[in-house]
Amino acid sequence: MDESTERAGPAAERRQAAELIAEKRESTARLVASLTRLWDDVVAASALTGDDDEHDPEGQTVAFERAQLRDTLKQARGDLEALDRAASRVAGGEYWVCERCGGPIAAARLAARPTATCCIDCAGLPAR
User: Rounded CA gap, 102 and 89, in Å?
Assistant: First the structure.
């Protein structure tokens, strides 16, 4: 492999990783927007009714669904933040380096999980 091919490889890898993260971020941002609209609708509907969830036979279901929606929205926002951190790692050249051991993160792992910050070996270790 000549020097120009070596230089093209990492740039191509950075571009490919950045594109994958951007695609995932776009779909996650759409999900966050959709969940936010749903949440706003649930809150607005709750404000219009004087129902007492505690004594309403359907109340537990409504409260449960509201809690599920809240938690799903929280997770989606967390995913969005993780994708932003991954994009920063790509820009900084740290995307392919395990934050725990400093070794390489396999390309297949990053393709499957673009927000991965550690190699597969370290992923199986207990949290510090």
Answer: 14
What is each CA distance from 99 to 63, 102, 105, 114, in whole angstroms? Answer: 39, 6, 9, 14
Give the CA count within 13 Å in the CB-facing half-sphere of 103.
9
In this prediction, residue 52 has a pLDDT band, given cuts at 50, 70 and 90, of low
Q: Residue 107 is which amino acid?
A: A
Contact 32, 76 (CB under 8 A): yes
Q: Provide the residue type at 85 as one letter.
A: R
pLDDT, residue 41, reads 86
Given a contact cutoff of 8 angstroms between Cβ atoms, the answer to whether 123 and 95 are in contact is no
Contact by Cβ (8 Å): 89, 110: no
Identify the bridge partners of residue 104 per DSSP, sorted by sequence position. 97
Cα-atom radius of gyration of the chain, to the nearest Å? 21
Average pLDDT of span 15-36: 96
Do residues 103 and 119 lie in contact, with contact meaning Cβ atoms separated by under 8 Å?
A: yes
Residues of the chain above pLDDT 70, percent: 81
